[in-house]
Each structure stands twice: as structure tokens, then as C-alpha cells.
């Protein structure tokens, strides 16, 4: 009886183990089938992606014998013809990077709009001083969408424009600052209107910069309104809303302080570009001097380089206020001076001006070396000319001496012949 119970218990345990093993094997079989199915789908997707990208890359590289690699690296682990470097830059890679950059810029602009940020743009206009009175008269006589507004009495170097037609709230914040020194700052002005203003000013100012140079040296920042105070936090300007000021009729002095610094940085950027061109023209001279050769520069070219250096020095140090604070802030507006200095230091205007002066000193030293070498060359040429003239004079003296000697010999021969004739006549006479 006991043995029967033991056998029955063993049979039950064996049946349980068998059912567990069958269940586990079924689960493992289903899992393996699912894994195989997913791997087949992944493989087919990889093959499909690779075929599509192969056709794209073949169309891109059509006519180009260089190898082209699919930028998504979908060919990894697959049989390919030859080994190709995955780091090769392709046209599709460049296109994707450009699209990614454009997408990031759009997302950034959306974020600015969401956060309530607006943009301020600064442009250089001309190297000359702008006649603001004449420009004000022209704007008042023509049908434009902007009007001239009133400014403070001590803001003589500024022409302030606001939107003439107020349709929405955005039109109330459109402001244009035109500085006499030759620059313009636009607050919350759309791109089409900025281009129209630049085209208008390009026709009515003297010796304007080219549009390529104007757009190349533009500077822009984000800004937002604040109810408490005006300041600079990071790269964002916060402008205090002054309740006693109607922005469509008069000027916000806080914006003027920030605009003054932005106007100076774009003018400095133009001079930095001019200095870069000057350095590029001087660079071959350094290589020639390093080889201990004479620099083939004419006197006119050296004078032109000297003139460019003096012009840059004059514009930066004498004809602008880059090295000192404008008188407008010294007299009355010390609070505005703090805002001006804050953005002035943020844009590194003082340091950039100092670096430019040091570079100009070096360029001037190089040109002085070339000028001295050219002067030495001219001195050598003059010495050679003088030596040649002396040699010519000596030759003429020798010829003159030889001629006199020949003349003296001929005279002596004539005298001798005359003497002989006279002697002969005397001898023949008495006979």
C-alpha cells in the first residue's frame, strides 16, 4: 500500500515536471519566433533603407568618380564593395546639416516669440557724417510709413523714427535710430521694412557702404520689455516700460543708451574688416622680408598703405567716441551711462579698439621697414646715376684733352713747315 502511494506520488510529480517543461519549451519557441520575426523585419527594413539610400547617393554622385558613403551608416554589417570611410563628407550630409541648422534657428525664433523676445538690429551706413537735417526734411516731404519724432535737446547726433500707422501692438514698438556718425539701429522692425529703410537711406546719404558690407557687419540681439528696470542679462536686453513716455511720439532714453553702443560696435566691425584687408596685403611682404629679399613695392603703393593706416587711426581715435564716454552721459544722464557702459563692455568695444591700435602699430612698423628699404634702393639708384654722370664727364674731359693735344700737334707741324719754308726762301734769295 505504501509503495503504491509512493509510485502514485512519483507519477504525479513526473506529470507536473513534464507539463512545466512543455510550457517552458512553448514559451521559448514563441519568444524565438518573435525574435526571428523582429530580426527579419529589421533586416528587411535595413535592406530597404540601404537600397533607397544607395539610389539617392548614386544620383548625388552621378558623374563623380569619388566614393560616396551613405551618411546614415545603414550599410554596416552588410556585404559592400570595398571599404569606405564613414567619415567622408557628402552632399547629403551637408544638406542634412543645413536643414538641421535651419530647423534649430526656427525653433530658436519660436522660443523667442514664446518668451516674448524681440530683436534689435544695427547696421553701418557710411564712413561720412550724415546730414540729419537734410534727411529729416526728405522724410517729412515724402510719403513714408515712418515719421520723425521728438528727441531730447542734447541728442543732436540722432534722428528718431517711429511707425506712422499704428495697426497692432507690434507697430507701437517699431523704432529706428539713425546716428550722425553713420549707423542705424532698428528695434522690432521686420526684415522687409529694414531693407526698404536701408535702400531709402542708400540713396540719400554720401558715400554709403555697399549692401554686401552693410549686411555682413550687421549686429543683432534679443530684447524684452520689463516693468522694473533696464539691464543686460546674458545676451538679452531688458527695456523698462516708462509709463510717462509714449514711444510713438518721443524716445525712450534707455533704448538710446543701448542703441549708442550697438551703433559703435558695427562701425568698429567695418574698421576691423578694413584692417583685415590691410593685413592680407601686408602678409606677402613679411614672407619676402623673411627670405632676405627686396620688396618690389613702388613709392605710390607704400604711400597708399600709409594713408590707409592713418585713415583708420583717425576714424577710430579722433572721429569717434570709442575710447571715451560720449559727452551726453557726462553732463546729465549718469544712469544712462551705466546702461551704455554695460553693453559697451559686453561687446568688448574697448578691448577690440585696443587690439586694432596694436595691429595698426605693427602694420606701420612693417611699412616703415619697406619704406626704408625703398629709400635705400632710391639712394643706391641715385648714387649709380651720379657715378655714371661722373664717368661720362671724365670721358668727355679725356676726349677734350685728346682733341687739344691733336690740335697742338697740328699747330706745331704747321709752324715747323712755315719755318722751313721761310728758311728755304731766305737761302734762295741772296743767290
From TrEMBL:
Family matches, as InterPro entries: DUF155, RMD1/Sad1-interacting
Pfam families in the cross-refs: DUF155
Any one Gene Ontology cellular component term annotated for this protein: mitochondrion
Annotated DUF155 domain residues: 176-357
Chain ranges passing through the membrane: 385-402
Region of interest (Disordered), residue spans: 410-431
Protein name: RMND1
GO process annotations (BP): positive regulation of mitochondrial translation
Organism of provenance: Mytilus edulis
Keywords assigned: Membrane, Transmembrane, Transmembrane helix
Biased composition (Polar residues): 418-431
Top-level lineage group: Eukaryota
Protein family: Belongs to the RMD1/sif2 family.
Amino acid at each position: 500500500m505504501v509503495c503504491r502511494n509512493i509510485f502514485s506520488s512519483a507519477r504525479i510529480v513526473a506529470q507536473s515536471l513534464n507539463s512545466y517543461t512543455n510550457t517552458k519549451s512553448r514559451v521559448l519557441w514563441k519568444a524565438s519566433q518573435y525574435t526571428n520575426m523582429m530580426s527579419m523585419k529589421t533586416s528587411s527594413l535595413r535592406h530597404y533603407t540601404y537600397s533607397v539610400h544607395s539610389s539617392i547617393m548614386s544620383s548625388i554622385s552621378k558623374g563623380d568618380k569619388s566614393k560616396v558613403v551613405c551618411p546614415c551608416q545603414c550599410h554596416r554589417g552588410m556585404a559592400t564593395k570595398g571599404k569606405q570611410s564613414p567619415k567622408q563628407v557628402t552632399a547629403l550630409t551637408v544638406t542634412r546639416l543645413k536643414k538641421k541648422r535651419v530647423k534649430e534657428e526656427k525653433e530658436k525664433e519660436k522660443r523667442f516669440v514664446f518668451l516674448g523676445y524681440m530683436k534689435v538690429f544695427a547696421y553701418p551706413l557710411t564712413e561720412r557724417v550724415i546730414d540729419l537735417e537734410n534727411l529729416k526734411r526728405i522724410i517729412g516731404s515724402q510719403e513714408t510709413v515712418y515719421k520723425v519724432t521728438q528727441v531730447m535737446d542734447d541728442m543732436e547726433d540722432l534722428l528718431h523714427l517711429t511707425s506712422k500707422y499704428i495697426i497692432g501692438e507690434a507697430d507701437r514698438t517699431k523704432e529706428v535710430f539713425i546716428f550722425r556718425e553713420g549707423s542705424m539701429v532698428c528695434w522690432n522692425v521686420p526684415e522687409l521694412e529694414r531693407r526698404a529703410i536701408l535702400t531709402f537711406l542708400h540713396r540719400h546719404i554720401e558715400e554709403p557702404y555697399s549692401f554686401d558690407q552693410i549686411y555682413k557687419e550687421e549686429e543683432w540681439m534679443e530684447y524684452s520689455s520689463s516693468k522694473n528696470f533696464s539691464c543686460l542679462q546674458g545676451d538679452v536686453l531688458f527695456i523698462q516700460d516708462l509709463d510717462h513716455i509714449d514711444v510713438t511720439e518721443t524716445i525712450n532714453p534707455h533704448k538710446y543708451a543701448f542703441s549708442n553702443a550697438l551703433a559703435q560696435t558695427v562701425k568698429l566691425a567695418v574698421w576691423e574688416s578694413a584692417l583685415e584687408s590691410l593685413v592680407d596685403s601686408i602678409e606677402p611682404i613679411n614672407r619676402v622680408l623673411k627670405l632676405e629679399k627686396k620688396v618690389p613695392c613702388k613709392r605710390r603703393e607704400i604711400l597708399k598703405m600709409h594713408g590707409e593706416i592713418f585713415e583708420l587711426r583717425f576714424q577710430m581715435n579722433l572721429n569717434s567716441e570709442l575710447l571715451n564716454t560720449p559727452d551726453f552721459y557726462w553732463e546729465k544722464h549718469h544712469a544712462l551711462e551705466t546702461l551704455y557702459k554695460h553693453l559697451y563692455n559686453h561687446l568688448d568695444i574697448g578691448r577690440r579698439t585696443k587690439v586694432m591700435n596694436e595691429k595698426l602699430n605693427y602694420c606701420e612698423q612693417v611699412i616703415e621697414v619697406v619704406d626704408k628699404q625703398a629709400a635705400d634702393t632710391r639712394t643706391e639708384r641715385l648714387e649709380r646715376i651720379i657715378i655714371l654722370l661722373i664717368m661720362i664727364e671724365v670721358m668727355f674731359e679725356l676726349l677734350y684733352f685728346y682733341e687739344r693735344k691733336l690740335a697742338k700737334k697740328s699747330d706745331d707741324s704747321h709752324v715747323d713747315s712755315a719755318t722751313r719754308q721761310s728758311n728755304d726762301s731766305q737761302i734762295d734769295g741772296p743767290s
